[in-house]
Amino acid sequence: MFSFEAMPVKFVGLLVLFVWCTVWCVYELTRPRQDNFQRVSNSLHLVMAVVMLLMVSRPVWSAFVAVVPLPVVVAFFAASTLWFAGLLVRARRGSDRSILAHFAGHTTMFAAMTWHLAAMAVKRPQMMPQPSGSPMGDMGHDMGQPMGGAVPDPAAWLASASAPGGILWVFALVGVPFMTYLLVAGILDLRRAFRPLAAVNDSCACGTGCTCGPDCACGPAHVRLDEVTRELAMASVGSGPSSEAVTHAVAQPVGCHEERPVGTPVYRMSALADFAMNFGMFWMSTGLMTALLPFFSYLSF
After folding, report:
1. What is the mean pLDDT of residues 54-72?
2. Strand pairing partners for 232?
3. Alpha-helix runs per DSSP H in the chain
4. Given pLDDT bands bounded at 50, 70 and 90, which one contains residue 212?
């Protein structure tokens, strides 16, 4: 949670990044020819983008968690992490490395979101001292605060929790691999956004209009819909490939979105949306790392 008065650059920057994430996730969810796995995955991405957007403004976030308790939000993203982990396991059967990397990245990203929210669930009530008996005091008790009198002094609790071995120090230590992933992924996403338009490959199975470039493997993900339909029809009458073979080819796991030629406008916008989500989450989470890496405080301005 942030305020424009305390850190205007970070506040506006995160708003811009997460608004773009949300807009693009809506676009992805409306794409045709999605299977059920893609629809669920894109829905989870949209929920993540909206939640991150709500987290930017302190009053907005406070109003949200008053309706949806923070432990429920944490549990939702933990379940979402398991969803993508399941897709990763499913993709291990016959998928290429790009699909495996795709689902591994999403699993890590949702795990990072779960880590962030869990840290907030521990920290937030301690930083909101309210006397017991008031509405906020009762909420604090529901989230683990002791009853009877005011909650401990926030500054004293923060200093104790941030010391080596304290709860925030432990969360920061756990967050090191997540933050490393988010930063590296964000840089790679930005790099993808500026990749040059690939040359047309006339021999590609996608057709003469394919611009997938030298990395195009012309695998199952590139098989055109009319070719798949023709093969299924042939299999149904006992000619051509067997039904089992065709079903195997069609059922290969694919990523969360449709294939996009490298360097095209939609490819660049998708990469920028990925950058906004990964780097935005990294930037948003820097405050949780100051117990272990104090210099991260300079990223909040």
Report:
1. 94
2. none
3. 8-29, 36-56, 58-67, 70-91, 97-126, 135-142, 154-162, 167-193, 225-236, 243-250, 265-284
4. low
